[in-house]
Amino acid sequence: MTKASSTINPAEAAHFGTLAAEWWDPKGSSAMLHRLNPVRLTYIREAIDLHFDVDSSQLRPLAGKKALDVGCGAGLLCEPLARLGAKVTGLDAAPENIAVAMAHAGPQGLDIDYRNEAIESFGGKDYDLVTSLEVLEHVDDPQGFINGLADALADNGLMIISTPNRTALSNLMLVELAERTGQIPRGTHHHDQFITPEELEKMLSSAGLQAIDTTGISYGPASGFSLSDNLALNYLMTVVKS
User: Fold this and answer.
1) Mean pLDDT of all residues in the chain?
2) Residue 4 pLDDT grade (very low, low, confident, very high; cuts 50, 70, 90)
3) I want to staple 162 with a disulfide (CB 3.0 to 4.6 A). Which of 32, 61, 133, 223 is the partner?
């Protein structure tokens, strides 16, 4: 696998850096992520239990395991993973996000290793769990990014990826409606950068990975976000090494 010189898009990193101060405000610019996060965590917990043969009643199913969250923002996923028992490392392209993440985790006694670093230059290996949620659509070289995730994953490890699908529905919901109505900051999404499940599966295959589950995330005005068989808006993938 050939790594790109950098998968980081400077404009994207700068955009998210400007939002860092509001990252933990459930009513701020990251409000939609806060509403989405419980759905993602449900999926991740079920994948963890299945992959590592863990009882769903265990409070710390990741005890003794290493987890890496790439494109971690200010820690919205890293903190729950740490509470599940993992030794967590979080990477993000925006230094402002890393600063906010560290400031938020410290007072709660969460020892999370946050780094302002690109995945292709990270060099970390043998992570039991590698996650990257709503990040792939923001990088300059998606294949190089996937290659970097693969390099960090242990041979028997578990990877979870989520990203918007490139469909008419995602353009309407995530770009036209969500950004125009202020639910998501303008300029957050670029529809031509969205990736279909078929495209992602090809990237995974090129990196020596395979998807073993693909589940959609749907949205309803009354019900909010939910896991679904419909992949048209957004989807999660459970990935392992081939």
Assistant:
1) 90
2) very low
3) 133
Please tell me whether the overall predicted TM-score, pTM, comes out greater than 0.85 for this model.
Answer: yes
Strands (E), 93-232: 113-115, 127-133, 153-164, 209-220, 224-228
- Tokens describing residue 55: 């009882």
For 50, list phi and psi in degrees, rounded to 5.
-70, -45
Domains, the chain, with CATH or none: 10-241 (3.40.50.150)
Contacts of 64 (CB under 8 A, 6+ apart): 85
Contact indicator for 92, 122 with CB cutoff of 8 Å? no
d(CA 175, CA 118): 26
> Which residues are CB-contacts of 31 (< 8 A; sequence separation ≥ 6)?
25, 183
For the sheet with 153-164, list strands across it.
Answer: 113-115, 87-91, 66-70, 127-133, 153-164, 234-241, 209-220, 224-228
Tally the residues of the chain.
242
pLDDT of residue 180: 61
